[in-house]
Amino acid sequence: MRLLRRLLRRSPRTLSSTDAYEKWADSYAAHAHNPLMAIEEKAMLALSPNLQDKIVLDLACGTGRYAVIAQEQDAAQVVGVDNSLAMLQSAKIAQVGLSTTEALPLATASIDVVLCGLALGHLPQIDDSMREISRVLKPNGIALISDFHPFQYLSGARRTFHAADGKVYNVEHYVHLVADYFRIGQSLGLSMTGILEPSIAGKMPVVLVMRFQKSS
């Protein structure tokens, strides 16, 4: 029992995603700033269409990592949406909206490409978010979605960060399998047209990266 208590005391506290990003915003750089993000970004870019002249949504944008990439690729318009005001205030994006992924303040069929990096895993269910992605996409539009790989979480790995208070925290996470994304996407007219599961040093995959295309 004493050992269990010590282990419980040492285990990082798990925060809701909104509380976590409130603490993390001041130090959250708008570029890939750890090995997992670097691997995830490389896979996202490998599946991404050319963003030049496209209307791009950086969904759950945080400080705007993918918005910056879209701007560098000369996208016609870049919009960032996130539910964390603290993160949006640190973002270098001209057009931003404070919103959850389940109810986007965007017109139907208004977006060419949705980029959603490492965000939907914070949600207990992804049906509403996927429905909104499908709604805002134009016919034949592309959505790139990444997630912390379910194998990692099921093997005991957690999403953590170091806060300004010097403590390490877990960020809430829920497992969504490839089959879940595929099934929900199919029901919404989103066909999975690409998938990458990159790993570090050939070991267990660390991220899941998927490309969907909306039906015409």
Topology, please?
Blueprint: H1 2-10, E1 13-15, H2 17-24, H3 35-47, E2 55-59, H4 65-72, E3 77-82, H5 85-90, E4 95-98, E5 111-116, H6 127-136, E6 137-148, H7 150-154, E7 160-162, E8 168-171, H8 178-187, E9 190-196, E10 207-214
Parallel strand pairs: 1-8, 2-3, 2-5, 3-4, 5-6
Antiparallel strand pairs: 6-10, 7-8, 9-10
Structural description of this entry:
Helix content is 32%, strand content 27%. It has helices at residues 2-10, 17-24, 35-47, 65-72, 85-90, 127-136, 150-154, 178-187, and strands at residues 13-15, 55-59, 77-82, 95-98, 111-116, 137-148, 160-162, 168-171, 190-196, 207-214. A seven-stranded mixed sheet has the order 4-3-2-5-6-10-9, with helices on both faces. Strands 1-8-7 form a three-stranded mixed sheet. The longest helix is centred in the first third of the chain and has 13 residues, at 35-47. The radius of gyration is 17 Å and the shape is globular. Mean pLDDT is 91; it is low at 1-9.
- Average of the residue pLDDT scores: 91
Helical proportion? 25-40%
Radius of gyration, in Å, reads 17 Å
In DSSP terms, counting alpha (H) and pi (I) runs of 4 or more, how many helices?
Answer: 8
CATH topology: Rossmann fold
What is the CATH architecture annotation?
3-Layer(aba) Sandwich
**SSE run:** HEHHEHEHEEHEHEEHEE
Strand order of the largest sheet: 4-3-2-5-6-10-9
CATH class: Alpha Beta
Q: Helix- and strand-based class?
A: alpha/beta
CATH superfamily: Vaccinia Virus protein VP39
Largest sheet: 7 strands, mixed
How would you describe the shape?
A: globular
Number of strands: 10
Distance between the termini: 60 Å
Q: Count the domains.
A: 1
Report the uncertain regions: 1-9
- How much of the sequence lies in strands comes to 25-35%
